[in-house]
Design brief:
Layout: H1 6-14, E1 19-26, E2 32-36, E3 40-48, E4 55-62, E5 81-89, E6 95-105, E7 109-113, E8 116-125, E9 137-139, H2 145-152, E10 160-162, E11 173-175, H3 181-191, E12 194-198, E13 204-208, E14 220-223, E15 230-238, E16 245-251, E17 257-263, H4 273-276, E18 280-282, H5 295-309, E19 311-321, E20 331-336, E21 341-353, E22 358-368
Parallel strand pairs: 10-13, 14-20, 16-18
Antiparallel strand pairs: 1-2, 1-5, 3-4, 3-21, 4-8, 5-6, 6-8, 7-8, 9-11, 12-13, 15-19, 16-17, 19-22, 20-21, 21-22
Helix pairs in contact: 2-3
Length: about 375
Amino acid sequence: MINCSDELITILQSGRIENICKVEILDENENFLEEITTDIIDGSISVDGDRDSKRNFSLTIQNDNNYYTPGSAHLIWLDKKIKLYIGIKLSDGTYEYIPQGVFIFTNPKAISKSAQTQVILNGSDKMAGWGKRVNNLTIAAGVNIGTAIQVVLNGIESRFNFDDCTEVTPYSLTYTPGTENKKIVKELADFITWYAGYNVYGELRFKPQPTDLDQVASVWTYQSEDYTLYAGSEMEIDDTELYNHVLTIGASSQNATVSAEASDTDVSSPTSIANIGDRLYIHNNGSADSLITTVALAQARSDYELRKRLQYLEKQNLTIFSNFLHEDGDIITLVDPYLDTNDKYELMKFTIPLKLDMITAECWKVRSFS
């Protein structure tokens, strides 16, 4: 969750909010150029933890004097960046500004009609501007993964906010010209299941992903009795990755096929074949895994895959009112007796209107039966 004063949190909880949007135009090195507030008409920010670029924005600006028309010699151009804030009015009449991200411009548009002179600005967080490799890049085995990411982004990004990482690359990695830098960073982060993405301050965060939500402190509680922030939710069970039967095929050193199966046959289990039918998962897409050379290894893989896949994803599609403090990955608590819900969830997706309006959000929790 984004840091702010206690007074701002109290104002949000009260529902008596006065807000404005502020934009800072930055040069390519993120030095301040100009501020925009009064000409902003409307806009929104889309946040999605599943995307490479976690935050996107759209902004409509009044352009009566042609000042904001995009052009290479104008204030708005592709070499600039934009920093967004939402300001909340405090009791003393001043505004406290909540940062919402640093973005690059994509497809700016000017409109000139009889009663409409506007500019529509769109953009994505800075990962969208990382580009591709020009030369071959080789990362040796045993290199610290955090260090490797900074090597990949040398000359591209310098604002890093990394947790301490002791994990190293498991083997040598070579990338050819044309490989997207974000693809390389994602692969490095995926080796150890860490998060790599920009925060609202324009820093690249590199941190562990939560593995057990119950062990992580919740940053906010939404409950049905709290009508000013919680407007309701729809629960969805996503069972597309739920399997109760696993088949593993390998090949022995003599090239003879080996195989083994594991299945949930306990009739008292809610995920058993008897209760929900046979849901078969075939390891390695049905191709023989050359690393599995004995029946014992095939059985071990099948047993492991069954434990991992006896689970489903519970999604809560929330509607909340004007909480501008969230970041993707926040752990929140949802209490709603009508959904039989009192648990922690990871906030994955949400859309923030820059004017006062409802926020739609999606949070997830993996529920396991193994």
